[in-house]
């Protein structure tokens, strides 16, 4: 039975939901569900979980580029068929996990993964992403598939991960480090609680396509979309449109999301901001937001050298200076932000002083500071 | 073959990290010679590479804004996408995304994955995201006539549904939970699956002011980031004592076990020091080590997980487990970033989850009725107040919901709070107070 376009509703099935995860669990996982006692990281990217039944599951975690062709997924399936009885999983940070139920199966699996490379020379399955190391960078679509991006995503991530490859494979940081990328302020990836967030931002107010706006946009929605009330209705050459009070615009792009006749991406205007020090684990200290420490860097395809350089600077200063178990944000808090900028060598500019809502909560209201 | 040379993208084939460019080229090469009866343009991957190269030259994207497409009866799950240079790159003229509702915690059999690959090779571009940020498997790039065909095969042959997009419930997502984690305080996978099944209508037919996300974390470590990005965050916790194996604690102190499951092995941090690494880092200082035994004053413990993470073979979460329920996290647009706010400190999480369902349905009623267009729950909570949300949910005020009490005395007293109400007589007042 196949889809019949002339009778599309016949025998139609809807709202069946996802496949039940129980259909897909590896047998060793199923047998020990809810009975795990503890785990160990045997080496970077290799975990063992031990059950109260005495059974163990060994996991090999490898990084993935998130964007994957079906040929690549089929290769992952081949590996899983050969070594893992046809089971595999992904992680929330776009890593791939191959699991085996005996230690003897580990080495052949790792050797198999190690030798596989893309035609261009990059590794297909780099092992790592565990413990006090760097895990995979979660990211959004960027130029490959999104309509509102201020920067690319896959390309920036590739450029950064090439440089930080060793830190994906080693566990030499004081604590885990999570880098995330969102290609615009919409933050489909919600990167605002990351150790380092790479964020696409715009710096130019929207252009207004007066010719088409009245026909293509719901003007009240475009006006209501602006968080600062910078948009108001107007008439241009007899056509209904909007005008933008530029000095009130903070370039969030929300108007463009509601109205395609207000594009704001630009070769010079758009680029990257870096935020640091966020976390979402409750471990030791409560979750906290990332803070902007680099207000703008230009888009520099294909390798984004300034972005990569700034991230390395932050990361390696943290690595040298922080205490064991101290997340990047906790380190910055302990040494103080004046020291953070001094030690990382990042310039502090007026753009880093908050002037949006609730800005006051971030101003210093004491004489306790460091010279 | 790609329509234009791609020197900038080719740069991204170099380096050690997996190259998405090489992957796309691999897919393009396979499409060029496959005997599969392709239903979308054979050159889709080539044209996408060429389009990307153009974006790299121009430093801006080349996708048109929006595009309303979907499958019959659904308002979500498909995201329309059209290229803004269709004459140059006709194979990606329309290049829609389908969000496929993933199984809880992304376990797959290869048998199932291969079927998805076959479907997507034939009817789409062959490119995917494994996975999107909300959790769905993203099938990237197909044409409008294929949408119903794909949906049919997905549901009939693969028994799998689309996920959410638009102003509706987004695809619920969970951590790995009890499948392979010793810290899971409730069955995140089962709850996620049950809620996804229960709320299919909310998932597929937009009826909310804006998006709504559930995320299910098994413990306060928060591996699925629910506290940062879910309108409702369910985070596992416990309310009895941490279980201690004193012998195993001594083994950590003696250096027989590596702290933090070996997470710091990449560097020489010196021998494990329980005082420095556990006792003094405890945020409430509720632990003590006398050289032989570890003591925890559990009443003062805030379950931050540090000691358990550091000595997983010696310490275990308690046995009276459940979850904390928090509401209102979101990314910055519009009112700024928000973390979820603690509303229910503890709830037992057991089938059929009626208490949790009642809670969420109360919240939805309130938000659906009073929320503005594109207003996330967290923003409405700011506008209407946390007290209002608690009232709607029938919950009593609890100091656990706040970091500190208010420092402004501008209390919105209600008339019923004041004995005798607010009615007064100005004439009576004037008898004692001249004008």
Question: How would you explain this protein's 3D organization?
Answer:
The complex is a heterodimer of chains A (371) and B (435). By secondary structure, chain A is α+β, with helices and mostly antiparallel strands. Chain A contains eleven helices and 13 strands. Chain A has helices spanning 27-31, 70-83, 106-115, 154-163, 165-169, 210-216, 219-225, 254-258, 305-321, 328-335, 337-344, and strands at 36-43, 46-51, 56-63, 67-69, 87-90, 95-100, 138-139, 179-182, 196-201, 231-236, 239-244, 271-276, 291-298. In chain A, a hairpin with a 4-residue loop joins β5 (87-90) and β6 (95-100). With 435 residues, chain B is α+β, with helices and mostly antiparallel strands. Chain B has helices at 7-11, 20-33, 44-58, 110-123, 146-156, 188-198, 200-204, 226-229, 246-253, 274-279, 306-310, 354-370, 377-384, 386-392, 426-432, and strands at 78-79, 97-100, 107-109, 127-129, 137-140, 173-174, 214-217, 232-238, 243-244, 287-289, 294-296, 315-316, 321-327, 341-347. In chain B, the strands form four sheets. Chain B has a five-stranded mixed β-sheet. Chain B has a four-stranded antiparallel β-sheet with strand order 1-2-5-4, with no helix packed on it. A two-stranded antiparallel ribbon of chain B has the order 9-12. The mean pLDDT of chain B is 96. Chains A and B meet through β1, β3, β4, α2 and β5 of A and α1, α2, α3, β3 and α4 of B. β4 of chain A pairs antiparallel with β4 (127-129) of chain B.
């Amino acid at each position: 039975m196949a889809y019949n376009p002339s009778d599309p509703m016949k025998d139609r099935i809807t709202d069946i939901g996802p496949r039940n995860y129980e259909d897909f669990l590896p047998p060793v996982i199923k047998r020990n569900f809810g009975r795990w006692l503890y785990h160990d990281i045997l080496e970077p990217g290799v975990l063992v979980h031990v059950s109260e039944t005495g059974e163990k599951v060994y996991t090999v975690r490898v990084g993935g580029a998130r964007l994957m062709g079906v040929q690549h997924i089929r290769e992952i399936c081949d590996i899983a068929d050969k070594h893992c009885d046809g089971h595999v999983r992904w992680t929330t940070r776009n890593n791939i996990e191959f699991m085996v139920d005996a230690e003897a199966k580990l080495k052949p699996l790792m050797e198999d993964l190690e030798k596989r490379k893309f035609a261009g020379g990059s590794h297909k399955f780099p092992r790592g992403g565990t413990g006090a190391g760097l895990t995979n960078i979660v990211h959004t679509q960027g130029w490959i598939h999104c309509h509102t991006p201020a920067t690319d995503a896959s390309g920036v991530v590739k450029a950064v991960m090439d440089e930080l490859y060793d830190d994906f494979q080693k566990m030499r940081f004081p604590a885990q480090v999570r880098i995330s990328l969102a290609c615009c302020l919409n933050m489909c990836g919600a990167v605002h609680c990351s150790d380092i967030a790479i964020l696409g931002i715009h710096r130019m107010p929207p252009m207004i396509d007066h010719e088409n706006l009245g026909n293509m946009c719901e003007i009240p929605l475009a006006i209501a979309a602006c968080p600062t009330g910078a948009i108001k209705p107007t008439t241009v050459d007899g056509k209904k449109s909007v005008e933008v009070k530029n000095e009130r615009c903070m370039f969030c792009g929300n108007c463009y999301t509601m109205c395609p006749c207000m594009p704001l991406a630009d070769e010079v205007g758009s680029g990257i901001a870096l935020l640091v020090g966020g976390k979402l684990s409750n471990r030791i200290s409560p979750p906290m937001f990332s803070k902007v420490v680099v207000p703008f860097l230009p888009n520099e395809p294909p390798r984004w050298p300034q972005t990569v350089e700034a991230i390395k600077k932050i990361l390696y200063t943290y690595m040298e200076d922080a205490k064991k178990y101290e997340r990047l944000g906790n380190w910055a808090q302990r040494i103080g932000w004046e020291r953070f900028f001094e030690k990382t060598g990042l310039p502090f500019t007026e753009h880093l002083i908050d002037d949006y809502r609730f800005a006051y909560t971030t101003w210093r209201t004491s004489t306790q500071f460091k010279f | 073959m790609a329509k234009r040379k791609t020197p900038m993208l080719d740069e991204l084939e170099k380096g050690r990290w997996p190259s998405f460019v090489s992957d796309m080229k691999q897919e393009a090469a396979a499409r060029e010679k496959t005997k599969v009866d392709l239903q979308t343009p054979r050159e889709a991957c080539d044209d996408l590479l060429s389009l990307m190269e153009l974006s790299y030259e121009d430093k801006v994207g080349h996708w048109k804004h929006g595009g309303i497409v979907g499958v019959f009866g659904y308002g979500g799950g498909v995201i329309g996408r059209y290229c803004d240079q269709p004459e140059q790159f006709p194979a990606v003229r329309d290049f829609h995304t389908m969000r496929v509702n993933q199984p809880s915690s992304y376990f797959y059999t290869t048998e199932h994955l291969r079927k998805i690959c076959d479907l997507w090779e034939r009817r789409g571009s062959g490119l995917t995201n494994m996975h999107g940020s909300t959790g769905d498997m993203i099938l990237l790039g197909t044409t409008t006539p294929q949408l119903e065909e794909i949906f049919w095969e997905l549901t009939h042959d693969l028994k799998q549904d689309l996920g959410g997009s638009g102003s509706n419930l987004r695809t619920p997502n969970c951590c790995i939970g009890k499948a392979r984690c010793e810290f899971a305080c409730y069955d995140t996978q089962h709850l996620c699956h049950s809620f996804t099944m229960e709320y299919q209508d909310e998932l597929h037919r937009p009826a909310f002011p804006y998006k709504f996300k559930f995320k299910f974390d098994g413990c306060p470590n928060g591996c699925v980031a629910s506290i940062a990005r879910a309108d409702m965050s369910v985070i596992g916790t416990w309310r009895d004592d941490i279980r201690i194996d004193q012998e195993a604690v001594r083994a950590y102190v003696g250096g027989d076990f590596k702290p933090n499951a070996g997470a710091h092995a990449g560097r020489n941090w010196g021998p494990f020091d329980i005082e420095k690494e556990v006792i003094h880092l405890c945020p409430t200082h509720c632990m003590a080590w006398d050289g032989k035994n570890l003591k925890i004053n559990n009443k003062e413990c805030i379950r931050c997980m540090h000691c358990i993470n550091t000595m997983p073979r010696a310490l275990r979460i308690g046995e009276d487990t459940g979850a904390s329920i928090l509401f209102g996290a979101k990314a910055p647009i519009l009112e700024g970033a928000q973390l979820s706010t603690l509303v229910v400190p503890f709830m037992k999480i057991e089938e059929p989850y009626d208490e949790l369902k009642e809670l969420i349905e109360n919240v939805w009623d309130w938000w659906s009725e009073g929320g503005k267009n594109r207003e996330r729950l967290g923003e409405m909570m700011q506008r209407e107040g946390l007290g209002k949300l608690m009232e709607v949910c029938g919950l009593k005020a609890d100091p656990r919901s706040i970091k500190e009490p208010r420092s402004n005395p501008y209390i919105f007293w209600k008339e019923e709070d004041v004995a005798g109400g607010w009615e007064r007589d100005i004439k009576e007042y004037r008898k004692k107070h001249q004008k």
